[in-house]
Design a protein that fits this description.
By secondary structure, this protein is mostly helical. The chain contains twelve helices and two strands. Helix 2 packs antiparallel against helix 3. The radius of gyration is 20 Å and the shape is globular.
């Protein structure tokens, strides 16, 4: 438990202290956000706000994980694990793709960075590499990821082959990284929502650690590789998001950019894969799913009928144009995320109760 608190605290402290330094450095370098011409007019005043703050989130998450290990490895006897390193690889890799996107936006002074093909190729390279490596490195017969589709745990009848798993994992990673990216349209919305989802994975992975089949064969135990290390990653990521949120709340002094949103989306998807809770993430990340669906529905309906379902997509812009203030949209969307997380954790716990007969 102490190692988890250290990981979260380091992630929080590093993020909250380094973000103002990043603000000053990015402002000196002229690394300001470009705003969509077709977005809400109220957002035009945000032009020039320093972006790429996701570099701080990624760095704070990595440091939180590393420091927790350095402090406690001598006492507990455990070191870095394949699962933890793979999650960091996924987060950092997706962050690099986002960084390139942000850099091109700043360099060319337009709101579009990498073209769609280049971004998808980058996500493909990182996602497929993660998926392939995750079904290797067995320990006691358990690999970081499973080729079985999972909900709260593996669903045995839905077993995939390695190739089908890699394809599904890539789609899952790309889907959620882009979903967080779409949600990152209002001050603090993506950071606050991501922090809550990461907090849910702190609870889930720690529960799996205390009910690990590798340590004790009991009813309802979980077959997960390195659950404690997963908890450290989730805790440090949560702390990093909260520290960044201190400076990112309205009016934001810095944006996470694609660097942060793609990294966080990739990390969240990776956590779902290694904890065997892939379908549960659809509930926990319900806000991200809803925002993405609003874009898909808007585009499909407009192409078919030349009419729009929403005033503007993604969904949060629809409510802005409906008259809600930005702060109102953010807080209410945070509440939706909180309810989704609570419901998802309830489903997770209800599954365990079904095994112990309560």
């Amino acid at each position: 438990m102490r190692s988890i608190l250290v990981a979260a605290a380091v992630g929080l402290i590093v993020s909250i202290l380094l973000t103002p330094l990043a603000i000053r450095a990015f402002r000196r370098q002229g690394m300001g956000q470009e705003i969509r011409d077709d977005g809400p007019e109220s957002h035009l005043s945000k032009k020039g706000t320093p972006t790429m703050g996701g570099t701080v989130i990624v760095g704070a998450t990595v440091l939180g994980y590393v420091v927790a290990h350095l402090v406690f490895v001598g006492q507990s006897g455990w070191g870095f694990t394949a699962t933890g390193l793979l999650l960091l690889f996924l987060m950092v890799g997706m962050g690099v793709v986002g960084f390139l996107d942000d850099y091109l936006k700043i360099r060319h002074r337009r709101s579009l960075g990498l073209n769609k093909t280049a971004k998808l190729v980058g996500q493909l390279l990182i996602g497929v590499t993660f998926a392939v490596l995750a079904i290797n490195f067995p320990r006691d017969g358990v690999t970081p990821a499973s080729t079985v589709v999972s909900y709260v745990r593996d669903i045995a009848p839905l077993t995939l082959g390695p190739i089908a798993f890699v394809i599904l994992a890539y789609l899952f990673i790309a889907g959620f990284s882009n979903a967080v990216n779409l949600t990152d349209g209002l001050d603090g919305l993506a950071a606050g929502s991501s922090a809550m989802v990461l907090a849910s994975y702190v609870v889930i992975s720690f529960w799996q650690f205390t009910h690990d089949c590798a340590n004790e064969l009991i009813e309802g135990c979980y077959t997960v590789r390195d659950p404690l290390d997963i908890t450290l990653i989730a805790a440090s990521g949560m702390g990093a998001c909260l520290g960044f949120l201190w400076w990112n709340t309205s009016p934001a002094r810095i944006f996470m950019g694609d660097t942060g949103s793609l990294a966080l989306g990739g990390l969240i998807a990776g956590l779902a894969i290694v904890t065997r809770t892939e379908l549960l993430l659809v509930v926990l990340g319900g806000l991200f799913v809803a925002v993405t669906l609003s874009v898909i529905i808007q585009v499909a309906f407009f192409r078919a009928t030349r009419r729009r379902v929403f005033r503007m997509a993604p969904l949060h812009h629809h409510f802005e144009l409906a008259g809600w203030t930005e702060s109102t949209v953010i807080v209410r969307f945070w509440l939706v995320t909180g309810m989704a997380v609570a419901f998802g954790l309830g489903l997770f716990y209800a599954d365990w109760l079904s095994f112990v007969g309560l």
